[in-house]
Amino acid sequence: MTTARRDTYTPETLLAVAVRIFNERGYDGTSMEHLSKAAGISKSSIYHHVSGKEELLRRAVSRALDGLFAILDEEHARVGRAVDRLEYVTRRMVGVLTAELPYVTLLLRVRGNTETEEWALERRRDFDHQVAELFKAAVADGDLRSDVEVRLATRLLFGMINSIVEWYRPGGRGMDDEQIAEAVVHLAFAGLRTED
SUPFAM superfamilies, per this entry (predicted)? Predict the structure, then answer.
């Protein structure tokens, strides 16, 4: 039976197990023994797929980061008025978060204790900076209030979006991801938009 499981285990399913355990125990509190028990395979089988738990962490946070950065390459994020692009990016950020919930949750929990975590934090800062630049452009266009400091507004927006990982459960009762995205956009931008 162990051989059959080993034959059907894939890097993707192993990654999903690792992310679950990292989120439950914390990355630092997770050993290869924990991962092998959770996956139901030997440690040597894990090493057949990856070099170690740091590689699993890098793959996991890369999945979340790649999803976020892909938003910035989408046409609606690159073309049009800055405020419309910013609202689009906000909606899509919620979409990535809900679609990749365990991966984004892990990304939000990294603290810079390893080389991979430092790399992930740097990429997050780069993403945050690009969103802040959209805020600045929307203020310069006169579409967002100039009396609210851009850095603060950006942090509050990210705080609202990132808090979703604490309570959102896919398939649960309540709002779906599109309704959540619309609520975030409405709550954030109703207070930030200038009067028409």
Answer: Homeodomain-like (SSF46689), Tetracyclin repressor-like, C-terminal domain (SSF48498)
φ, ψ dihedrals at 40, nearest 5° = 75, 25
From the list 99, 82, 155, the residue with the least C-alpha distance to 124 is 155
Q: Which fold has domain 60-190?
A: Tetracycline Repressor; domain 2 (1.10.357)
Q: Which fold has domain 2-50?
A: Arc Repressor Mutant, subunit A (1.10.10)
pTM of the model: 0.90
pLDDT in the model for residue 2? 42
- The tokens for 89 are 């990016």
What residue spans of 74-112 are helical by DSSP H? 75-78, 82-99, 101-109
The torsion angle over the Cα atoms of residues 161, 125, 112 and 103, rounded to 10 degrees, is 40
The pLDDT of residue 196 is: 58
